[in-house]
Amino acid sequence: SNAAMEFKSAGVEAIRQIGLTQDEKNAERITNNGKTLSDLKAQESKHVADYKAISDERIKLQQQLVDARKAGDQSAIDAALAGLAEVDKQEKAYQAESKKISDEKIKAAQDWVDAQLKATDGTIKAADAATQKILQTTIAAQGLALEFDKTGKAIVKAIEQDAGSAVVSLDTRLAQARKG
User: Fold this and answer.
1) Which of 146, 141, 143 minimizes the C-alpha distance to 110?
2) Contact 26/118 with Cβ under 8 angstroms?
């Protein structure tokens, strides 16, 4: 039966897990977190592209509204306003989704960093300067910042935007997409 097969494969997986050394478990965790990060990065790129489509729609509707007002066409004005209200709803949904993707990305990156720094005894070890640099570079490629507190604990954060730097945070990218 199907249930028996599932039970058997769960048993096989449990035995496989027991057989893995701490290092192997860690390597597996690093691989899985890395995959999660690239999936989230892809999701984020698609998200920005979708958002650009919403922004283009907003621009088109705003133009229709201007034209309809010039023409004094009430039904066209109503249609443009209804369309803009719909775009506002889509934008709100996108902002909620953006926050979710951002939070998931920070969590996955933190898990990935912790797994990189996990010692064989299961404790998180402090990273030396060279390791910190490598980890920071890797995390920066995900559009995130990695800081180390005075104990050497790694903390992943969203990058705060300063006007001169590259566009990184999703909200900033969405704002850019809206303008572009």
Assistant:
1) 146
2) yes
Query: Residue 166's pLDDT band (boundaries 50, 70, 90)?
Result: very low
Determine the pLDDT at residue 80. 94
Segment (H or E) for 148: strand 144-148
Residue with tokens 């997986």: 13
Tokens of 35: 């995959």
Q: How many CA atoms lie within 13 A of 78 on its CB side?
A: 3
For residue 149, the SS3 value is coil
17 burial class (0-12, 13-18, 19+ CB within 10 angstroms)? exposed
pLDDT of residue 23: 65
Question: Which residue, 112, 118, 115, 109, is CA-closest to 159?
Answer: 109
Q: Are the C-beta atoms of residues 64 and 76 closer than 8 Å to each other?
A: yes
CA angle 116, 117, 119 (to 5 degrees): 115
